[in-house]
Amino acid sequence: MVNGQTINLVRDKDGQLKVADKNQLRLLRTRLTMVFQHFNLWSHMTVLENVMEAPIQVLGLSKQEARERAVKYLAKVGIDERAQGKYPVHLSGGQQQRVSIARALAMEPEVLLFDEPTSALDPELVGEVLRIMQQLAEEGKTMVVVTHEMGFARHVSTHVISSIRGK
User: What topology in the membrane does the UniProt record assign (predicted)?
Assistant: First the structure.
């Protein structure tokens, strides 16, 4: 259930769950965004273009609206104007992950999904990403986070579910 709307799931021919209705899937994609452990930024696009793309393609925003939104969320995660014209390869892992978070935030989702957001980072860069996530939690943003950072999870979460060996 997302924002009071039940999402109907069915099994495909391989037994995998999928959203039953394509319109529901489209709506779901506008309400949930994902931050991946390996950033998944488009290498052929600048930082700014990476953050603008989904709001243009999925939400139908104009380039100007998407640019304003991208600049806003890049600033929120500490990516300054000089870095916005760079390509991902020229950024540190921490900067790339912050761009990934800005890209997710630019969709203004109801729920942010994080898949091991700090696992691909050097230890000294983990803190900057965790600080941003803590700020989002303090702002009341709903997040589902898969992490090994259990101290962080306990500190910022209202609910913690632990899995040991998949159970």
Answer: Peripheral membrane protein
- The CA distance from 143 to 140, in Å, is 9
**What fold is seen in the domain 9-156?**
Rossmann fold (3.40.50)
Residues across the chain = 167
pLDDT in tens, 80-134: 988 899 999 999 988 999 999 999 999 999 999 999 888 888 888 888 888 999 9
Task: Give the three-state DSSP class for 143.
Answer: strand
Max CA pair span of the chain:
49
| Half-sphere CA count of 98, side-chain side, radius 13 A | 26
- The residue with tokens 């998407």 is 66
- DSSP letters for 82-132: HHHTS-GGGS-HHHHHHHHHHHHHTT--SEEEEESTTTTS-HHHHHHHHHH
Question: What residues does 17 pair with on adjacent strands?
Answer: 11
